[in-house]
Structure formats: C-alpha cells, structure tokens
Design a protein that fits this description.
heterodimer; A: mainly beta; seven-stranded mixed sheet; four-stranded antiparallel sheet; B: mainly beta; about 0% helix
Chain lengths: ~110, ~130
Amino acid sequence: DVQMTQSPSSLSASVGDRVTITCRASQTISSYLNWYQQKPGQAPRLLIYAASSLQSGVPSRFSGSGSGTDFTLTINSLQTEDFATYYCQQSYSPPPTFGPGTKVDIK
Amino acid sequence: QITLKESGPTLVKPTQTLTLTCTFSGFSLSTSGVSVGWIRQPPGQALQWLALIYWDDDKRYSPALESRLTITKDTSKNQVVLTLTNMDPVDTATYYCVRKTYYYDVSVYFDAFDMWGQGTMVTVSS
C-alpha cells in the first residue's frame, strides 16, 4: 500500500492567516492526490482533486499543488469555518489510502 | 440532489457479523462509471477505505480486511450493502458510504470520493 504522511499533525492559526499543509507519499503518485476537510461530527468533504483542481463549490482561497511524492494544501486568508481537520488521499495505486490528518485550530 | 445515507446497528457483539446498508439518491449505480463504497473512521483516528462496488458489479476490497468483507448492490432499490464478519472491538468506528467520481483532464482520468453519507457509528462490545 502507498503510505501517506502529513505535516504538521496540528497547527494553530488566526483568522486571516495563510496556512500550508504538506502531504507526502511513500512512492510517486503523479498527481493522483485529493484533499478533504472534516469538521467535528461531520463527514469529510472533497476540496481538491488531481492535486490542484478545485471541487465545485469550494471557495477559491483553497488551493493545492505538487506532483510525484510531495503535495501542499494552502488556505489563503483563513476563515472561521476553515477550522477543521484536513486529510490527503492517494488514488494512484489501489487500495486508496489516506494521510493521518492535520488539525487546524484557533490560535 | 445527491444523497447517501447509512443504516444498520449501532451496537454489535464480538464475533458477530455487521451488515450496513447505504441508500442513495440522485444517481444510478447502473450508469457506466459509477461506483459506491465504504470508508470507516475509528474514534479520533484517520480514514480507512474498505470496499467499492462498480456499476458492472466489479468489486474491490481492502487487502487487510478482504477475507471478512462482502459488498453487494441492489440497483433497483438504489442500495449498497456491506457485511463485515467476525467483528472485534477494533472495528468500532464511524462507517461512511461514499460515491467515487471520475474527473477527466488532458487524456487522464482521476478519481475522488466526492459524495459522502453522514456516517453511522458502530460500537463493538459485549
């Protein structure tokens, strides 16, 4: 299985901050990388697919980049509703696998 | 509007078999390219993909759990059923029903889980 790691595991930020989360795959996965947001008590929500494509309805302050093994999720001008846990997921090689998550909370 | 909803027991005993049903609307599992699956999340932990069934009845399972998992579909009822045998306390988790969607970009297909059910919490305890 492709192992996914994320850093940091958690971070504290303020409204208006720019936040960057990193995801790394244990082998090259081209651009087969998705990002999800999960708020407490809710199901995950797809934010980014194919490493950098914004899912319909997702605010443009979210962006993704990277290819190969290293990927980044950036949130520009963090909003109150963005405090959540973020997961990356590879879809390159079955089975699909998720990272351990990065929790973004209020500083 | 696309919705998925999980149903099933909230409490099962060790060694029992868990049966979960996903009832969905807004799309058809008889349409080429469509697939529905299951992902679980133990309390405070990360997401774990379990199984997927395709429109053509092709099935895929997590290698770690394949011997215990079965996924089936009833297209006429818009339902997908997951069974997990020999339940153990480590199987305690929220179980999500998901739809997988394909995205086409410059001659390449990507896929992601674009729609999720609300999840159902299953506790394994005697």
